[in-house]
Amino acid sequence: MKTYLVTGGAGFIGSNYIHYMFKKYGDTIHIINVDCLTYAGNLENLKDIEDKENYTFIKADICDGERMIQIFEENDIDRVVHFAAESHVDRSIKNPDVFVKTNVLGTLNMLNAAKNAWELPDGTFKEGKKFLHVSTDEVYGSLTEDGGYFYETTPYAPHSPYSASKASSDMLVKAYMDTYHFPANITNCSNNYGPYQFPEKLIPLIINNALHGKKLPVYGDGKNVRDWLYVEDHAKGIDMVQEKGRLFETYNIGGHNEKQNIEIIHIILDTLQEMLPEGDPRKALVSEDLITYVEDRKGHDRRYAIAPDKIKAEVGWYPETCFAEGIRKTIKWYFEHEDWMDRITSGDYQKYYEDMYSHR
């Protein structure tokens, strides 16, 4: 039985990855979820698997290097999937310090803990051990509106404290691969969307605000372009890189779903109107009149677009979910989990498991 250490597994992408892995591998794997439960970590995301014998949650901070070493000493870890990171650009602009601490120093702690556990006396590493560092397309900077894509060879040019901290963490992983021949891969993904996403992000924010008749804030002219990737497709890509990818390589994971932010908002409004049943009072609230243009974000990148050619050719992965399908699945999930969203927006989710895990 392989043991996976997943950092940040109570967050949006991490929890979706854990669900995907159990759906695919069942009881043949053991997952250890390490999360310090910041505002973006929510154990309700994993409520239906929390009692599985082959699932373990450990409340711990990756910034605590000694604790990370201890976790490796207490468990025979085969794979690390490192999601844990501060990830919201606006928060990084207001408080860059915590992004550097978590994303850079936290990643260094994870690398050191894994190296300490896996390295043999001759400087090689135990067979089958792998570390996957999950990163972002934002490290590449911004593309022009009229063409071009991010490739694995695209020079890094981060423009926000968030993307700079992720670029720094990528460089650390690259350095460990080059210096120590440390068994790792890096994946850089485009914007994810789907179930369990914290409502400060664009798609769940627009869904929730529209259903409550609240303003829909749009930065600048709303024409910034992002490449959208359904989160389960991303989880599948990560698993395939760990199973089939060449060690020491970087793989871009993109959705082939480029859309302007304002276009995303119109699609959500149209889809909500289509999916809400007649007689539902929220149908009257969902309106383009809610769209409100606000001052643009500082250093706002104009366009992101990933070329996933390498992962398609070498690993056989491709994005399976078109945006029209993915947004319907996402909205349907939020319709069916309104209580989840209510606890998020009220803050009650942070109290939900407080006592249960306070001793761990």
TrEMBL record:
The name under which this protein is listed is: dTDP-glucose 4,6-dehydratase
Name the reaction it catalyses: dTDP-alpha-D-glucose = dTDP-4-dehydro-6-deoxy-alpha-D-glucose + H2O
Q: Which domain of life is it from?
A: Bacteria
- The EC class name is lyase
Which Enzyme Commission number(s) are on file for it? Answer: 4.2.1.46
Could you say which protein family the record assigns here?
Belongs to the NAD(P)-dependent epimerase/dehydratase family. dTDP-glucose dehydratase subfamily.
Ranges for domain NAD(P)-binding: 5-330
> What does the UniProt keyword field contain?
Lyase, NAD
